Structure formats: C-alpha cells, structure tokens
Amino acid sequence: xxxxxKKTCRLIVESGNHYLxxxxxNQKNLYESVQAxxxxxxxYVDVSKGHGRIERRVVxxxxxxEQIPDWPGLQTLIRVESQRQLKHGGxxxxxxxxxxxxxxxxEPAEALAQRIRGYWGVENKVHHVRxxxxxxxxxxxxxxQLPQIFxxxxxxxxxxxxxxxxxxxxxxxxxxxxxxxxxxxLFRMK
Length: 190
What we know:
Low-confidence stretches: none
Number of strands: 5
Helix content: 40-55%
Structural class: alpha+beta
Strand content: 25-35%
Mean pLDDT: 85
Number of helices: 6
Oligomer: single chain
C-alpha cells in the first residue's frame, strides 16, 4: 500500500502541478537511497547573518535517479547542508545539519534554494506567530466549527496588526489588549 506522502505526490502531479517536499526518515527506503546515491550536479551557497548567528547553507541538486526507488513525478533530489555558528554562554558553538528534499521541478540549485527559504518565510510569518504569540497549538478549542472560526479570527488579527505597520506581533498583541482607542483605530472605527 503506498504511503500518504506518495499518494499526495501522485495527486499533485496528476493535477498538473509540482511539489517540493522535505524527505523524512520515515520514508526509509527512499531516504536511505537518496542519502547513499546523491551526487551533486549543481550547488548554491548562501551565507546569512542575524539573530546572533551566522548560517551557511549549501544547496545541491541531483537529477540522477537510477538507484532511487520509483516515486511519482520525481525529477530532482536536493540536499541542504547547514552550518550554524552560535554562541552559548559566550562560547562559540557550531551546529551542522543535512536535510534532503524531493521535487518534481527541474530547476537550478539557486532557484530550489529560494523556494526552500520561501517556505520558511511563511512558517516564520504565519505558523510560528500563530503558535507562539497566539498560543494556537495550546488551544483547547476542539468542538464543531470553533477551531476554524478561531483560526480565521487569529489570521484577521495578524492581518490588522500588519496593515497598521506592526513588525513585532507579540508587541502588537500586548499593545492592543489594553487600549480601546488602539482597537478602534485598527478597525477604522470612529
């Protein structure tokens, strides 16, 4: 029986679209085959500095699929090798991580790197904010349509904060909790 991920990839390709997804260890055969047979054909290096760390990412692409198990629409294997230089307790610390991705796209490593980074932009701007600032994962609301209604309300609040030029959503939420005038201004009420 094919996995849910394999079925999803098949549906995406059959609908005329493309996918780019993280390859997890629970796809054991595919993961191990990619890890053992990956030969970089094209690479792109990105270095970024911020939040007290320096991160270097090498995104490599491989389109040689001879030793890879059959996978719906698979065209490209991607390896992302990350090295983060941080300070813990004033001492330098280096973390390394290697992640693999599969894709139905045939693009250069730089374009694939931008797509992968774009995903994290969405994750950081929406999902992380909804979870950490608004406590969405900790919410006990589980009945009927209430979870969907509260999701709409949370997104609405984030959009209002952003439209009022708030950069920090936690700060915006604290600011709006204590001022009716602020809420009236956000809702453009008189």
